[in-house]
Specification:
9 helices, single chain, 2 domains, Tetracycline Repressor, domain 2, Arc Repressor Mutant, subunit A, mainly alpha, about 190 residues
Amino acid sequence: MKKSQNHTKGKIVSAAWKLFYEQGYERTTVDDIVEASGTSKGSFYHYFESKESLPASLSYLFDEKYEELMETMDPAMGVIDKLVYMNQELFLMIENTVSIDILSRLFASQLVSGSERSLLDPSRTYYKLLRQIVIEGQQQGIFREEFTTLDVTRAYAVFERGLMYDWCISRGNYSLAQYSAQLLPQFLKGFCKG
């Protein structure tokens, strides 16, 4: 039952974000989302109060990408390469399928008092994958001992959110993925031995 519910919610979220990207948030209606997802209005309102509650669901879409990466990432890759790969795959997805306005709405929804802080939920696939890679790096002696798993995962997440936020306020006038590809390896060096 739970898997079926997650599948239905996933269909709604995926359809909504595709429509938001193609025709804009304002021009997309709940009816459009229901039709594109092949679900019902009852299902939509079971998971979401309104269209306005959808921006917070972007993290759900991100986690679908991370689940895919967990399956396809080469286990032989180095830890730093895995972290850079994970970041690049997300940022390329954002650049190609998520409008700046929608990403901005996600950040705004996270700032509103009382709203669900989906980006910070430690049970997200994002944090599970990130912790797994960081622990692997600690076991291999790559990261300096004074940094805990939480220190590295939190810093990585803050780095990513900071770049996404800057990209939004810059109105996407640079490539998010390319800029991160230049900065992230340097940022991660600060946590590494030697």
